[in-house]
Design brief:
The structure holds two protein chains of two kinds. By secondary structure, chain A is of the alpha+beta class. Helices cover about 40% and strands about 30% of the residues of chain A. Chain A has a six-stranded antiparallel barrel. Chain A has a six-stranded antiparallel barrel with strand order 6-7-8-11-10-9. In chain A, about 30% of the residues are buried. Chain B has seven helices and no strands. The chains are: A alpha+beta, B mainly alpha. The interface of A and B includes residues 107 and 179 of A.
């Protein structure tokens, strides 16, 4: 009934109605305003804090994901590099007419005076003392100690190492001795022999341990200034001994000349 | 028995650490000799007999995994142990500088002993061997000395944790390396 009266008053546009409208509006609006403010504040708080928590969480998840992906990428790169390395090893093994067994380097020499590495192949795999250890880049050393599953390789850079070698170009004979610190020297190299910086040095095959023609290194320095029968030459090994990972142990030579030597001979023939 | 087994196991661990993790250092010559530092630490804790056996075994381990076929470390490590035992009462070994100097001198002395023995036992004297004193021995001795206080601290904490007798040994004897 009241509503009908009110409707009627509104229809007739009486002034008293407007007064009540204004009155109620003035009373309610601040409440409404306050209510809106509260809602907006809460909404803002939610947007800025509660939702930001999600953003932070999302950020954390994304960062973690990025880290995981970076880690995965590093792993993939490592796998790729290992794959390339193993491919080279496999290719080398297929091309080399020697009975070889692959081994992984598992440790370095604990002292600084001696240069050796430990490999994960031992007597059970047929590894014996004195066997030559090589990699596609050249000679690494020889086995000096064996255990059932492991062996120690004396590197050619060790002071105790001596490898019978020849200078590939001039066929001059010399003994490659270790000098430590990834360096070797050519001993008993006759003064009359012509040896130049950059000459390749290969194994002579006379020592008994190393087959003929394996790359040992490159001549880095020649010194004839001193007196005596012999000249002094310094050699840089073809293999970086500080970065050894996979190596081959030569079980027994099948032929006296590995392909590197043959290739040189063939090259010379072709040139002729 | 425990006091003998635990250092042996620790010796194995440090050897593996030295031959693997430390080998990844970009410059090989700065690789500190952790087993030597451990031997020096044992000299403060152990009696001559037990300690001597341990030092012998640690030297033997070194020789086993190195290219050295003569057993030079098996000889030198007990010597280092006994020398350290003799000198521990005559030196003030508190603080970074003294501990570093102590280890540096021992590392240097052992290196000289080893190099003299290598050269003496060669049928033909090794030419160009002694320059490695400057390129190899001194840098290694220096870095061995440098990490010694840190490793002594780690060993002390480790032995305290393992034996649960934190003050046994060093403090009883009045030493705190």
């Amino acid at each position: 009934m009241f509503a009908l009266v009110l409707m009627s008053l509104r229809a007739k546009q009486r002034k008293g109605v407007e007064f009540f409208d204004v009155l109620f509006m003035e009373i309610c609006s601040p409440l409404e305003k306050a209510s809106t403010l509260v809602i907006k504040t809460v909404q803002k708080a939610f947007q800025e804090h509660v939702f930001l928590v999600n953003v932070e969480k999302e950020n954390r998840v994304l960062k973690q994901k990025v880290t995981e992906l970076q880690e995965e990428n590093r792993g993939m790169t490592e796998v790729k590099l290992a794959n390339e390395r193993l491919k080279r090893l496999l290719q080398f093994r297929e091309e080399t007419p020697l009975s070889m067994i692959g081994a992984e380097v598992i440790g370095q020499d604990p002292s600084s005076w001696f240069k050796s590495v430990t490999v994960d192949k031992g007597e059970r795999d047929g590894v014996k003392k004195g066997m030559a250890v090589i990699c596609p880049a050249g000679v690494i050393g020889q086995i000096i100690k064996t255990a059932p599953d492991y062996a120690t390789v004396l590197l050619i850079t060790d002071y105790n190492s001596a490898v019978d070698s020849i200078v590939q170009r001039t066929r001059a004979k010399a003994i490659v001795e270790g000098k430590g610190e990834n360096r070797c020297q050519l001993k008993y190299l006759l003064r009359t022999e012509e040896v130049a910086v950059g000459d390749a040095v290969v194994t002579s095959g006379l020592g008994g341990n190393f087959p003929k023609g394996l790359t040992v290194g490159e001549v880095k320095k020649v010194d004839k200034k001193g007196h005596g029968v012999f000249q002094y030459a310094e050699l840089s090994p073809s293999v970086d001994m500080t970065k050894l990972e996979e190596v081959f142990v030569i079980m027994e030579p099948l032929r006296s000349s590995p392909p590197q030597e043959e290739k040189v001979k063939k090259g010379k023939k072709n040139r002729k | 028995m425990r006091r003998l087994i635990l250092p042996l196991l620790a010796g194995f661990f440090f050897l593996v650490f030295q031959t693997t993790f430390l080998s990844f250092l970009p410059i090989q010559r700065i690789r500190p000799d952790v087993l030597l530092i451990f031997t020096l630490y044992l000299a403060f804790l152990y009696s001559p007999i037990f300690g001597g056996i341990l030092a012998f075994f640690l030297g033997y381990l070194m020789d086993l995994f190195s290219g050295n076929t003569l057993g030079l470390y098996t000889f030198s490590r007990p010597l280092v142990f006994f020398a350290a035992q003799l000198l521990r009462e005559r030196f003030y070994l508190e603080g970074f500088a003294f501990q570093s100097l102590f280890a540096f001198l021992f590392s240097l002395s052992e290196g000289i002993l080893i190099s003299v023995l290598i050269n003496a036992l060669q049928p033909i004297p090794l030419g160009s061997f002694y320059p490695s004193f400057f390129t190899c021995l001194i840098p290694q001795a220096f870095f061995t000395g440098l990490v010694t206080p840190l490793l002594f601290f780690v060993f002390r904490k480790g032995s305290a944790f393992l034996s649960r007798e934190p003050e046994q040994g060093i403090a009883e004897r009045g030493y705190r390396p």
